[in-house]
Amino acid sequence: MTENTTTGKKNWRPATTLVHGGTTRSPFGETSEALYLTQGFVYDNAEAAEARFNGEDPGYVYSRYANPTVSMFEDRIKALEGAEAARGTASGMAAVNLALMASVKAGDHVIAAKALFGSCRYICETLLPRFGVESTLVDGTDIEQWKAAVRPNTRAMFLESPTNPTLEVIDIAAVAEIAKEAGARLIVDNVFATPMFQSPLELGADVVVYSATKHIDGQGRCLGGVVLSDEEWIADELMPFVKHTGPHMSPFSAWVLLKGLETLPIRVARQTESAGKVADFLAGQSKVKRLIYPGREDHPQADVIKRQMRGGSTMLAFEIDGGKEAAFRFTNALEIIRISNNLGDAKSLITHPATTTHQSIGEEARAELDINDSLLRLSIGLEDPLDLLEDVEKALAAI
Ligand SMILES: *Cc1c(COP(=O)(O)O)cnc(C)c1O
């Protein structure tokens, strides 16, 4: 290795960090980051192997533990987030599972906001209790519920904000304070805000997780995730899990996601600008009942958004007047915006949560989360916003 651009350049602005941060060049001096598609590493002699294994020589051992391309991804996002350490994972769910499992043991208690991505809800509600970790789900926007749920054995709190799919916003600093007092680690799933618009660690969270599958790739190619936190916890608690259970990110995915980070700021800015235009258009339509967009003054938690976010969202949620039938008619009439459960993509994507992503949680849980049959979730992509507006307008007329 001849050059590592992470060292000594901590005061770069985000866009510069996302282009140069973490780059480690090989002796060839390649411009683009190298893809080290290798499982293992060879040692010059038996003594060198011994030194690598006992930690005297800090080099690479095996790609289940660490890999140079994955390290570049981790160092780049770590520099952006202002975290001490990061670990790349095979998917966003691997990151969430890892962050929770590394925080608790049997007999502990977890509090989570009930408005969660479906699989996150499964981990908190079903998986953790199976291993003797009780969990309480609260209405995340009601700070009193967090306080009331604290028990002497509460060791972790988990939330996402804005939430999926209703884009509620939770006061991260307020929950962080409760977590600190309780001696629990606050884990924030920051996918919907993206690292561009929200920095949970600065707001007092202990751990940030991402599904890199979403905006970080942003072009629908690879799954990936990342856990960011302090050096000590990552080394002592998280790393043993990574090493021994095998959820580490593959070098190929890391390479794609590393290149995704380079264009993240311009993509998120453009997608957010377009989302704002679509939101403003929908807000004035008689066939649209409820519009939730974190970039608008009429968002239910607009005051919290002002305090903790630096931008709106690439996502919006709205209800079409006329229930499932009208919502389906609208969705089916769209030509540019495609039907898919993914988000953060270059392609605009629409989802009917009640019949897809949130079908399995059941009607009662859906009602609790305000996910009714009229609700649609729209992820805005990189198309010309005028084409998107025309697409939406035509589909509304088709209802
Ligand atoms: C997609 C998503 C996840 C899961 O990520 P995968 O990469 O699909 O495993 C977790 N949390 C949120 C908020 C998500 O949107």
Summarize this structure briefly:
It contains 14 helices and 14 strands. The chain has 399 residues and is of the alpha/beta class. The chain has two domains: 258 residues, 3-Layer(aba) Sandwich (Aspartate Aminotransferase, domain 2); 135 residues, Aspartate Aminotransferase, domain 1 (Alpha-Beta Complex).
CATH topology label of the largest domain: Aspartate Aminotransferase, domain 2
How much of the sequence lies in strands comes to 15-25%
Number of E-state strands? 14
CATH architecture of the largest domain: 3-Layer(aba) Sandwich
Radius of gyration: 22 Å
Strand order of the largest sheet: 3-9-8-7-6-4-5
Number of helices: 14
Kindly report the average pLDDT value: 96
The total domain count is 2
Q: Residue share in helices?
A: 40-55%
Major sheet description: 7 strands, mixed
Within CATH, the superfamily of the largest domain carries the name: Type I PLP-dependent aspartate aminotransferase-like (Major domain)
Assembly state: single chain
Spatial shape: globular
Instruction: State the secondary-structure class.
Output: alpha/beta
What is the C-level CATH assignment of the largest domain? Alpha Beta
| Ends distance | 60 Å
Plain-language structure description:
With 399 residues, the chain is an alpha/beta fold. The protein folds into two domains: 3-260, Aspartate Aminotransferase, domain 2 (3-Layer(aba) Sandwich); 263-397, Aspartate Aminotransferase, domain 1. The protein is 40% helix and 16% strand. It has 14 helices and 14 strands. The protein has helices at residues 14-20, 46-53, 68-81, 92-101, 118-130, 143-149, 172-182, 194-197, 231-245, 251-283, 302-308, 323-333, 363-368, 385-398; strands spanning 3-4, 24-25, 85-89, 109-113, 134-138, 154-160, 185-189, 207-211, 225-229, 288-292, 315-320, 338-339, 349-351, 375-379. The strands form three sheets. Strands 3-9-8-7-6-4-5 form a seven-stranded mixed β-sheet, sandwiched between helices. Strands 10-11-14-13-12 form a five-stranded mixed β-sheet. Helix 5 links the parallel strand 4 (109-113) and strand 5. It is globular, with a radius of gyration of 22 Å. The N and C termini lie far apart (60 Å). The model has no long low-confidence stretch (mean pLDDT 96). The site of pyridoxal-5'-phosphate (PLP) has 16 residues, from helix 4.
